[in-house]
Design a protein that fits this description.
This protein has 6 helices and 28 strands. A 5-stranded mixed beta sheet has the order 6-12-11-8-9, with no helix packed on it. Strands 16-15-18-19 form a 4-stranded antiparallel beta sheet, covered by helices on one side. Helix content is about 10%, strand content about 35%. With about 475 residues, it is mainly β. Among the domains are: about 35 residues, no CATH class; about 100 residues, Immunoglobulins (Immunoglobulin-like); about 130 residues, no CATH class.
Length: about 475
């Protein structure tokens, strides 16, 4: 920031005396003012784009880095560095749009959260009074760890651009299903998916993958027919049930081209013509389409751009809703914690005592379904644990305030969310899940347990 020093304006008037000499008369008028001018010494703008707020251990973390001039024009073919824990984890080159794609190996990352930093060039450290030196800023991005009891994850590969209508899109899904600790290392995993747009479930299906000890990690693709029913945006939700009793899921948001059921094409018979000459206008559309034409001189649009008909203006007039959270008619329908809280009690391991740390467990599957307005009816585990608020009184259940709690019951239910009425065998357990959206219960299974859950949905206040 620089300050412009005050200045004075002294008006001067010339006049002649009776002797013919010229004299100068200075008027005593003085104007003083000061202004402040911000001078930005940043030579570039660097930022993260299309980033996830969470990472999943063992699943590649994807993102973009954008490098721009101060006037927001892209800087192509330049190298930027990605840092993690003050170490360079990769060098990436920007494309013609100034964007560099990157992915991060998370197999060895176990921190509750990480901070990614991107740099372009080092700034000069020397300082001289009165001089401003070029500055190359850095950018940081905070990422949390995603919670999973079985260390199993799903990741839908996001689409960076807008999906075009009337085409089939293959959406890639990364999966990591940990079979460590299971008696049977091989099983058939059913990946169920739903696609929601404008508050309605548009598509749903299932994909089967054989999971084994040597092949618990991989990629599969889900075919999606992009149509106007998905416009202007859609959310995909994919989930499966782990034999260890945990619901594994992920969601992704897709931008869809603003298209219509009845497409129309318009063109003139000639690209250019003389004033006063005849020209034809060709309009083609589907049968039984109501078409409206609007013609105006192009110079009118140059003076004032208003009332132009476009796909965006039409969609702006349409009403559609995207649900979020569990608030309905002033009521908070959020589920309460189903498990007893984790006490701050010490655990002896290899002669050393350990205690739970007061750290954030990150986001979980419950956060995903809540963000979509989905209700899940399941006896599987899909919520992160919580530490008791007042650990100085371990003999009391402070969350429910129900008095003394049986120590044996707390230890048996600390890391499980299975109902007492849930079946014992894994095959029946894996079928116990139903989703409810807008009062409609969707169950990928036809078992008796799933039908019982559909009965629960009929009495839910969201219906």
């Amino acid at each position: 920031m620089r300050t412009v020093r005050p200045f004075s304006l002294l008006p001067v008037r010339f006049y002649k005396t009776h002797t013919g000499k010229t004299r100068v008369l200075k008027l005593c008028v003085q104007l003083t003012d000061s202004k402040y001018i911000n001078i930005d010494s940043a030579m570039v703008r660097i930022q993260f784009e299309n980033m996830d707020t969470v990472y999943k251990q063992g699943i590649p973390y994807f993102g973009q880095i954008k490098l721009l001039h101060p006037d927001n024009t892209p800087i192509p073919h330049e190298i930027v560095q990605l840092h993690l824990k003050d170490k360079v984890v990769g060098n990436y080159t920007t494309d013609i749009k100034g964007i560099a794609q990157f992915f991060l190996d998370t197999s060895k990352i176990t921190n509750p959260n990480i901070t990614l930093k991107v740099t372009y060039k080092d700034s000069e450290n020397c300082k001289v009074n009165g001089w401003m030196l070029p500055h190359y800023p850095q950018s940081e991005y905070f990422v949390q760890r995603f919670y999973s009891k079985t260390k199993s994850f799903l990741k839908i590969v996001p689409e960076m651009g807008e999906l075009r209508c009337n085409q089939k899109k293959w959406v890639k899904v990364h999966y990591l299903l940990n079979v460590e600790g299971l008696e049977s290392k091989t099983y058939m995993a059913a990946f169920n998916y739903v696609v929601i747009s404008k508050g309605v479930i548009i598509l749903h299906g299932q994909h089967i993958v054989k999971i084994s000890n040597a092949d618990g990690k991989g990629i599969f693709s889900i075919p999606i027919q992009v149509s106007m029913e998905l416009a202007p945006s859609a959310v995909m939700f994919v989930h499966t049930l782990h034999p260890g009793g945990e619901m594994i899921a992920d969601s992704a948001h897709f931008e869809i081209e603003k298209c219509f059921r009845n497409e129309v094409n318009l063109k003139f018979s000639k690209e250019s013509s003389l004033p006063g000459s005849d020209v034809s206008l060709h309009v083609s559309a589907a049968s039984n389409s109501l078409c409206a034409l609007w013609a105006v001189d192009e110079s009118v649009l140059l003076l004032r751009n208003y009332n132009q008909l476009s796909a965006q203006s039409v969609y702006n007039e349409l009403y559609y809703r995207q649900l979020y959270g569990y608030y309905f008619k002033g009521l908070n329908l959020e589920d309460g914690p189903k498990e007893p809280c984790l006490k701050h009690e010490k655990i002896l391991h290899n002669g050393i005592y350990y205690a739970p740390e007061w750290a954030d467990f990150g986001k979980d599957t419950y956060d995903l379904v809540k963000a979509m307005g989905l209700k899940v009816f399941t006896n599987s585990h899909y919520r992160k644990p919580e530490l008791c608020k007042y650990s100085r009184y371990p003999e009391y259940d402070v969350e429910e305030n129900l008095g003394p709690v049986d120590e044996k019951m707390v230890l048996e239910n600390k890391f499980t969310n299975v109902d007492s009425s849930s079946p014992d065998d894994d095959e029946q357990f894996l079928s116990s899940i139903s989703l409810m959206y807008q009062g409609e219960v969707f169950s990928p299974s036809s078992t008796s347990k799933a039908h019982d859950m559909m009965g629960l949905g009929a009495t839910c206040p969201l219906c």
